Description:
By secondary structure, this protein is α/β, with parallel strands linked by helices. It is 24% helix and 32% strand. Strand 6, helix 3 (105-116) and strand 7 form a beta-alpha-beta unit. The longest helix is centred in the N-terminal third of the chain and has 19 residues, at 12-30. The protein binds inosinic acid and magnesium ion. Residues 40, 43, 99 line the site of magnesium ion (MG). Residues 43, 68, 98-107, 151-153, 157 line the site of inosinic acid.
Amino acid sequence: MHADIEKILLSETQIAARITELACELNNLYKGEAVCIVGVLKGSTMFMMDLIRKLDMPVKFDFMIASSYGERTISAGCVNIYLDVRMDVTNEHVLLVEDIIDTGNTLSCLKEYFISKQAKSFNIITLLDKPERRVKPIKADYVGFKIPDQFVVGYGLDYAEKYRNLPYIGILKDSVWQDN
Length: 180
Ligand code: IMP
Ligand code: MG
C-alpha cells in the first residue's frame, strides 16, 4: 500500500467485480443499440476504459472537461466546459461516465446540457457516490459504490493530481492534507 494511504476502501478485485456487474446491466439496458459514451476527464478514465471493454453494443467514446469551479470558458448554465464533446449526440443514446458524485453541481449542469443537445436518451454512471455531500438533487442511474463522506484517491481520482495511478481506491492520511 502507498505510504500516504490510511486505508484501502475498495480493492482492485472489488472494483473489477462491480464493473462486471455494471456492464451486464448496461448490456441489458441498451440491448445492442449503439451508445455514445462520454467520460468526464480526468478522474473517470480508468473506470471508463475498464467498463467499455465489457460492453457488447457498438460504442463511440469521447471526453469532456467540465468544472463547477475556476475560470470561466464556455458556459453551460452553471458549469464551465473547457473541452466539449466533438461527436454529434443529437438523437443518440448518451452515457455519461463520472468518477464520483459529490455535491452534484457538475452533473446536474451536464445533464441539462445534454438534454439541450437532444440526445435520444441520457444516463449517468458513476463509480462512486457520496450521497451525504449532495447539494443538487441529482441521482446517477448507475452507481458503482456508495461511500462515506471521506476524501478518496486512486483508480483515476486524485489529490493535487497525485495518486491517480493507484489500482485501488483509498482514503488519504490526514497528515497528507495537513502538509499542504
Ligand atoms: P461535484 O459533484 O460537482 O461536487 O464534483 C465532483 C468532482 O469533485 C469529482 O468529479 C471529482 O473530480 C471531485 N471530487 C469530489 N470528491 C472527491 C474525492 O473524494 N476524491 C477526489 N476527487 C473528488
Ligand atoms: Mg471529476
